[in-house]
Every structure is written in structure tokens, then in C-alpha cells.
């Protein structure tokens, strides 16, 4: 890998050139079905494909570059904080609700800055006036103005300490497909809308928006993974097949941003236990409570009002049982568009709450066998030479793998039958032995009674 180092606001940043690495990856990717299956077997449990390397907290440096007030179409407003860091060249964001949460690095007095500089980068308190004089453009901060800023900061800090409730926090990774084009493959857009609605209702909260598209692999590789998902792989297997970690996201920068916003305890909105584990591993942020992000359509009465109940989707009913531990009685915010029923099916399929693949293969094969039997009665055909072939058409993709899977299942079934027969024989033998012992004991007792009666 080719690396280059450059300086960003006084911090050394390492930038990796992915061109050579990408070419090596392309060469080593499988090109045939056998290579494809073998690669998946070898790579899916590899340590490098499971956990990304975490950067220690002391090595991560961030700085808030600007803060701006954003009025929303829903009537409320938020503050957008933009951060730069020494780990990557991306601009990460913090969406902040409430005036009491502020950035420590933003409020610092920068060298040789004027009043206008501070106003332009958002380092002000209260609300801006509509008229600003031209004199502010060239004036440096006087001692009186510096003491005024210090007094404002001290006042704000004392107000923050009075707030005992930890704020709602959502650590959200960028998702163009879910947030912009409303993809049914994920619920990222819905989760972002839900988090914003809850924080706006509470009047306080932080969304740390990390530029980690596609679990950290980027939009290009994410779209390639979508094509693999259409072949039947879930998100994890698709990422691994592209020689990426199953989940390449890290939350060190998120931890640093929350520290910079002077938060010590948070009420975290997440379904991801790894997010809590990584966040608490740095030791500076304590997760006092976790709130699950339940899709709105799961708690929608439309799914339980009897509509289309004549033909329930087996995928939907199976998957709702699988994820019943996520259901909650609390109402889910109604911001944004709801997920249609067919899109929910796709969402559950991609999320991996489904499916025993062996059963699907067996069902497909049985269906084909029944079809062939019906056709054979009308047009008798000679028997196949191979007893191993259960009737899979020659034009099926991955036929060899399916046959191996069927043969493996057949052998497992035979071994299971043998184990059951052996266990049954042992059980009968043990029962017979106990019956014989019982008979001997009864006979001995009778003999003892007869001897005793004769003696009397």
C-alpha cells in the first residue's frame, strides 16, 4: 500500500493510496464457482474479516471547524458541527439539538482571530443579530471581550451541570442508498429520521454522523456487495467475499466528538451491541441506557388489523417471531415515510433473520421431483444412471454444490437413524435386565417367606 503524510491544522494525517491494494484484491478474487465457494469457506471465519483494528483514544485528535444553525421544515432547529481529524480526510458531523451542548474546541480562542472570525465559524453565544458592522471584520479580541467570552462560557457550563438527564445520542454511519434513494435493503434512513424526531421532541440530543458508507467499505464496494446479495448472500458474507471486514466501522472518532461536546453519560439509540462495547472501551463515555431502534412498520396497526391476512407471508411471520425481543410498547415517532409491507420483507431478508438455506434447497428439490414424477407418468422415461442426482436440472447454477449438500444431508440423516436405533437397543436391553433383576428379587422374597412360615 502506498502512503503519504500531510499536515492538517497542525496534525499529521496519513493518507493511504488504495489503487495498488485494489488491484491486488481484484487479482485474488474468485473467478469460478469452485473458487467462489472455496474462498467463502476459508475467508468467512478469518480473524481479519471479523474485527477492524481500533485506534487508541490518545492518538485520535479532532477539531470542530464550524458550527451553524439549521432551521428545519418540521418547525424546529438544530446546530450542525463540522469536524476534521488526524485519522482520515473525511469531514464528520455532529447534529446537535439544544443550546446547552457545545464544542470545547470550537469555543477556544484561536490565534490572531477577530470577532468576525468567531462569528463566521459559529463560536458565539445566544442568537446573531441581523446587522453586523464592518468594523468587526478587522478588530482583534480586546481584553474586555475576552473576559466577556470567558464569563459566557462559565455561565453556560454552570447551566449544563444543572441538567441531570443524559442526552439522547445516536452514532449514525452515512448511507446514501438508505437516506437519499430510500433503499429497502436497509433501514438507515428510517433510523436517522426517528432519531431526529425523538431529539427534536425532547429538545436535546446529539447525532454523530460518521462518513462510514457501507459498514466502512465505501459506496463503490457497497454497490458490488448489493449484487452479491442478489445472488443470495447476506451483508456479512457479501463484504467478506469482496475481501473486506464483516463490519469495518470504528467509533473512536465518535467517542472523541462526544468528549469534545463535553458529554460523559449518554442515552444511546442503537441496535448494535458492538457500538456500545467500542464506545465504553475508551473509558470516557458511559452508556447509562440503550434504546432500540424498532422499524415503524413492526409496530404499525396495519400489520395486525387483518388486512391481507388470508395469505400471510411466511417470511414475515417467521422473521417477526425471530425478532420478537426487539418489540416495544413505546410509540415510535412518525416522522418520514413508513416502510411498505413488501419492503419490510426485503428488509428482513437482508438483515439475516431468515432462512435455513438447507431447507430451501430441499424444498426446491422436492418440488422438482414431484414435477418430474407427474411428467413421468404421462411420458415414461428411462431411469437415471446416477442415484445421487435427486433431479436438479442441468442448467441450475451451482448444481454441483447443491448435490453435495443433498448428499451430506442424506448421510447425516442415515447417521442419525443409526444413532437412534443403537440408543433404542440399549434402552430395551437395560429395561430387560431390570425386569429380570426384579423377577429374581421377587422369587427370592417368596422363598424367604416360605422358609419363615415353615419355621413357625
Automatic annotation (TrEMBL):
Compositional bias annotation for Acidic residues: 442-456
Pathway in which the depicted protein is active: Cofactor biosynthesis; riboflavin biosynthesis
SUPFAM superfamilies to which the protein is assigned, alphabetical: RibA-like
This protein's name: GTP cyclohydrolase II
Biased composition (Basic and acidic residues): 398-417
Family in the record: Belongs to the GTP cyclohydrolase II family.
Xref: InterPro entries: Gnl3_N_dom (IPR014813), GTP_cyclohydro_II (IPR032677), RibA (IPR000926), RibA-like_sf (IPR036144)
Origin: domain of life: Eukaryota
Gene Ontology CC annotations of this record: nucleus
Biased composition (Basic residues): 418-431
Domain Guanine nucleotide-binding protein-like 3 N-terminal: 359-430
Record has Ribosomal protein as a keyword: no
Molecular function GO labels: GTP binding; GTP cyclohydrolase II activity
Residue ranges of the region described as Disordered: 296-342, 367-456
